[in-house]
Each structure stands twice: as structure tokens, then as C-alpha cells.
Amino acid sequence: MKEKVIAIYDIGKTNKKIILFNEDLKIVSEIEQKFPLIQDDDGFECDDIEHIEHWVKESLTRLVHSEKYDLKTVNFTTYGATLVYLDENGKRLTPVYNYLKPIDEKIPERLYKRFGGRDEFCRRTASPALGMLNSGLQPLWLKSAKPVVFSKIKHILHFPQYLSYTITGKIYAEHTSIGCHTAFWDFDNMDYHPWIKVFGLKLPDAVPVETVNEVVIEGKKLQIGIGIHDSSASLAPYFSSSAGKFLLISTGTWCINMNPFNTEKLTADQLDKDCLCYMSITRQPVKSSRLFLGNLHETALKRIYDHFGKFEDYYKKVKADNQLSASLKSKFSGRKVFFQTGSYSRNLKDYIDMYEFTSFEEAYHQLMNELGDLTLEAINLVLPEIDETENIYITGGFSKNELFLNLISKAFPLKTVYTSEIANGSALGAALVVSGSKSSMNLGLTRCKV
Questions:
Q1: Confidence (pLDDT) at 357
Q2: pLDDT tens digits, one per residue of 96-148
Q3: What share of the chain is helix, strand, coil (3-state, %, to 5)?
Q4: In terms of DSSP bridges, do strands 27-33 and 16-21 run parallel, antiparallel, or are they unpaired?
Q5: 403: domain CATH number?
Q6: Are residues 185 and 234 in the same domain?
Q7: What average pLDDT does this structure show over 314-335?
Q8: Residues 428, 297 within the same domain
Q9: Which of 248, 253, 362, 345 is nearest to 299 (CA)?
Q10: Considering the chain, what is the average pLDDT of its residues?
């Protein structure tokens, strides 16, 4: 008998995956695909959307005819800050523009000026001023740069909903994509910001992320989800479990600290310090802060390697030495070796004096002390005055870094700190919202010991 499965298309910036889950939401198959980037109509790098569309449709047809799996449901999870424009015939009008594409600063400034100034606009939309990463600014850029194309727009979809649209032909919006630093959503009134109507943008009304449509493909009935933003999808398994009130620290190139239980509104000061809000699957704001942790770690580590002549990945052999960390904190009290001084400074020094250290191990412990302090600053930005979070879950690359775990555990002695190993967490969240499952997830928790 064929195994019943849910297929999730997990579209990242680097890797594109098809992940199959069984009825118990266990992974039974994972296929990874990489597509070369192409250039958009301005010569800027972007994803090859035509190639992705073809891959989705062709692979879906193969799954329908699989002799091993009985495909029942399909959903999509993708990176955010990406829009697709459709004409009156439902045809895509443009490439999928890269959110790193430069934007004329006059475009957002005109919007800010008309709606209360930059600080108030960013606070109300829970969106730091991030250029094209504020996907709401992308249609305004298109209107300015390509007015003829803009005049043909009938519908605007976020990337997850567009991929669903290619299968169902249905136009949708949902809260996790709208609420992701887009500048579209008014977090004061929990609705689209008034500027959208003033500027005449054509956005669909938001529906629950659990929405599915029945579609017949090659004679087989399938339930097709409407898609979900990947960061919100990664939180979904924790909401489905008896996790209590928690803080999720998702680490990698970026460290994103997500607190779904902080109901305080963002302040202008927090926005200036790179805080923002995501939207959870329960349509609640998730106050979050960001730190370029992995990038800072990699850049500083290279300088340590160069000085001590060690091979790449040597740092993984370094064992946490609490006594050494403490002595370094005392030695360098009030000053930093790797980072520029000043509250919330995130910049490495141009010159780092490695002769402060007698060994690679000593230098690496100090680097982690300083990165730990930066992480704690970022975490504290999303903790409310009355903090009732009980647990901290750490996922991603730094969940395997003993020094990092020790620093976080010591900083929060009244909370229980766990590492959480969920394979393909965003894909699992996307499967969860369309599965109808009410059972608790296995979060792969390991309690950290100081």
C-alpha cells in the first residue's frame, strides 16, 4: 500500500527542496535542487522564476504518479520580502526581483513624510527601514522605475501565495507573509496600513494560513495550501507543543530572537536597533530582534586563524572552559578586543590586536564572550518589562557551539535553556498548518547544562 504524504516545497535563497511528510509528520523523503541565478531586466541577480515554476509543476506531476507515495496535500514555504505581479489575465508581469536590489531613497522618504514621519511609520508597521527588504516599497519602486509595467498590475502576491497560485489559480494573501517587515501591515489596528488604499495598490484580503483548495491534477484530487512565510513556519511546531511561554533563538548567518509572548508595541528605539515583528500562524505579532551573528563569527574567526596558523574548523575542537571565560571577562572588563566600543555596536575593529592572547583557545573564548554579549543585548530588546517566558529554545548552527550555549544559559539562570533539533523546521511548520494535526511535535530538545 502506498504511504500517504504531504509535499512541501521549501524555497530558500540558496536551496530549493521538496520534502515529503507522512501522516505522523515524519520526513520520508527529501530532494534538494539548486538553480543558477539569472539577471532581471535591469541586470541585477534574481531567482530564475520560470525554472522554479517548471520544476514545481513537473515534480508535482511525478509525485501524483508515484508508485511509492499517495500524495494528499501540498503546501509552500519561501523566503519573504518578495512579490509577484499579475496582469488582468493572471500572467506574471516581471521577474522575481531580488530584495537586495537598490532603491532610490527618495521613494520611501516620500511615503514616510506623508504618513507621520519615518519613526512613526516604521513603528506602526513594525518594519525597520530596510529598502527593498520592506517588500511594500517594491511596488512604489516599480511605479517609479517602470510605470508602464505598473499600470498593467491587477494583483500583487507574496512569493508563497504565488507558487500556490500557479497550481490553483486562486488569489490569496495571508498574515505571515504580510506581517514580515513589509511596511504593508498596520500593527496598531491589525489591518493593512491606510497608505495602500491611498496609493491604489491591489492587495487581496488576508485569509487564515490554514486555508486549502481542492484541485484535480492528472485525475487525482489534492488539497493545496496557500503558502506560508518561512520564519513564521519555523515557529509553528513550538505553538503546537506544550512548550509553555518561550523565546526561540534561531541561529545561523543571522541570529533571530523571536518572542511570541511580548505584547508590548515596538518603540522607535527598538526599530533603530534592528527589531521588527513577524506574524505568527495565530495572527499575533512576534517581536523579534536580529544580529548578524554567523557572519561576524566567521569574519573574526578568519583573523584568529590567520594569526595562530590554525586550519579551518579548528574552533570546533575548542572545549568550553568556564574558568578561562571568567578570567577573560575580568581581564577585558570595560573594553572589547574584537568589536568597536559603544552600546549596540556591531562593527569589528579595523585592527584587532591578537598579541593580547597567548593561544587560539584564549582568543576564541574572548570572541565568544563578546559575541555572547552582543546576543544578550539583542535578546533583551525583545523581553518585556514583566517577562514570563519560561524556556529558551536554540536552533541552528550555534546550538552545537558549547561556548555559546554556556553564555546564554548563565545569562538566564531562571529560564531553562534547550537546544532544539528539528530537521527542516520551516517545512514542518508548512506541513503542520495544512495537516489538521493537533498532536504535539517532537521538538528534539536537549537541556543545556552550565
A1: 96
A2: 999 999 999 999 999 999 999 999 999 999 999 999 999 999 999 999 999 99
A3: 35, 25, 40
A4: antiparallel
A5: 3.30.420.40
A6: no
A7: 94
A8: yes
A9: 253
A10: 93
Task: Provide the domain limits for residue 210.
Answer: 3-226
Is the same domain home to 222 and 288? no
Q: Residues of 198-237 as b/e, b for ≥16 C-beta within 10 angstroms?
A: eeebebbebeebbbbeebebeeeebbbbbbbbbbbbbbbb
Domain match, 9 and 136 both? yes
pLDDT at residue 253 in the model: 84
Give the number of domains in the chain: 2
Q: What integer is the mean pLDDT of 202-222? A: 95
Q: Which of 103, 99, 102, 98 is nearest to 47 (CA)?
A: 98
Residue 49: which H helix or E strand, with range? helix 49-64
CA–CA separation, 286 and 251 (whole Å): 17
Residue that terminates a domain, selected from 176, 197, 226: 226
Phi and psi at 74, nearest 5°, equal: -135, 140
Phi/psi zone of residue 259: left (φ > 0), alpha (ψ -120 to 50 degrees), beta? Answer: beta
Helices of type H across 285-424: 293-308, 322-331, 360-380, 402-411
Distance CA 333, CA 302 (A): 24
What nine digits make up the cell of 72? Answer: 494528499
* Residues making up the chain, counted from first to last: 450
How far apart (Å, rounded) are the C-alpha atoms in residues 150 and 171?
18
pLDDT of residue 244: 79
Q: Is the pLDDT of residue 440 over 70?
A: no
Q: State pLDDT tens for residues 291-307.
A: 999 999 999 999 999 99
User: How far is Cα 65 from Cα 75, in angstroms, rounded to an integer?
Assistant: 18
| Alpha-carbon dihedral sign for residues 204, 209, 214, 216 | positive
- Could you tell me if 209 and 69 lie in one domain? yes
Cell of 170: 486562486
